[in-house]
Design a protein that fits this description.
This protein has two domains: 72 residues, no CATH class; 62 residues, no CATH class. Helices cover 13% and strands 30% of the residues. Strands 1-10-9-7-8 form a five-stranded antiparallel beta sheet, covered by helices on one side. A three-stranded antiparallel beta sheet has the order 2-5-6, with helices on one face. The protein is globular, with a radius of gyration of 15 Å.
Length: 149
Amino acid sequence: MHFHAISLETLTDVRRTGRDVSGHPVESVVAEGGEPLRCCLRDARPGEELILFGYAPDLPASPYSEIGPVFAHAASCPTGPEPGYPADFRGRRQVLRAYDARGWIHPATRVHDGADPEAELAAMLADPSVDRIHSRNVSYGCYMFAVTR
């Protein structure tokens, strides 16, 4: 099972241009603490310099493609994501949205309570028609990270 943060190429482009996928300017934010960072897959610490921008998660062109807000470090991350399920996100309720190879939402999609996420993800990925899973924030619906086999 592989966990994917936003690509370094995308982050470099957003940081360099100051524009998101829609061409809108990024917003500079000072972290209050707890903002989920999609660059290194951890929660922000109070006082960290962040950017908030619109991001389109990687999917084949389909009616289910969408753009949503994400937080990332304003500069290069001090560390990359740790291997495995993001420790700071463990125990959080998440929508685990499964997609097929066409980029269509798959019926395996479910709300997960955050307990033993690896088992839940493995069960979903056991279905050969599930191509990838996006973890999403329950409250705001924002993209968190992707999971593939």
